Amino acid sequence: MKQILFSLSTFVLLSTSCGKDSSAGGTNNVPPSNLSLNAVVSTDNSGNVSFTATATNAVTYDYDFGNGIFQTVPSGSVTYRYNASGNYTVNVIAKSAAGLTISKSVQITVTVTQSLVWSDEFNTPGTPDNAKWGYDIGTGSGGWGNNELQYYTNRSDNSIVSGGTLKIIAKRENFSGSAFTSARLLSNGKFSMKYGKVDVSAKLPAGVGTWPAIWMLGTDISSVGWPSCGEIDIMEHKGSELNKIFGTLHYPGRSGGNADGSTRVISNATTEFHLYTLEWTASLIKISVDGQVVHTVANSTSIPFNHNFFFLLNVAMGGNFAGPVDPAFNSATMEIDYIRVYQ
What we know:
The protein is mostly beta strands.
């Protein structure tokens, strides 16, 4: 009886071992093969591209769309919409159940026609359109965080639409404890955007100590704070450095004096209108003036520029950036002909 039991145990052990050896050579450890990747670019300039990937022994497909966006697609078939025209290298990785992979790339050219989705032409005389703009009022905390000298108001003395332009007027006057008044308009709660193109036609104020800005903040600023919300400065200018245009991004690790920005010198910034442009996609942020690049940043998921932002338009006085105000300064005006958003 002992001999019989031993033989049965041995048989079970051998059977189990055979089963393991068999699975080790099964399809789980066979990598995918025969991978094909097909891309069909829509001819309607919408940016839509239909991808189809197939492979033997693949259970899922990881797409890199060539613009910093990645997506796992179990079926291998997906339609993706690009936000900007360009040439893209799309890579797909086919994976087996055991995680073994094979990859393939394809080059595509995408044309995207953008449409006007929001604008203010400033053609209606009077106060700025309250359906599009609100106001920051007061001095903020510590001069809006930059030791600025102005008191922001919602008075027509400081912001008015006339003659087809918005005029933001900084004035020397004693007002609620401040030596200057001005205005800061914002679209928060009325309009925000994620990705697209922004054109702003503006003529800047003159005067040492002036600090005009056309800029954007993340709509999540109330929950995450600054600079975690991100800041995009489409245009800043110092009255003490005439014609030098600043284009800058602020975000964690690159904010304040360590911000991510560059400058470009133009002519007649305070006497003529110039076009200030932001082009913003999931892979690139580009700031330009009159078609000349001021600054570019490679966008990615590691920086906070992949959610909605709202606009701000203002003229500050003095502070950490603009420096001392000329004692002879009395008033100066930033004029904005239009702001247009395309997507």
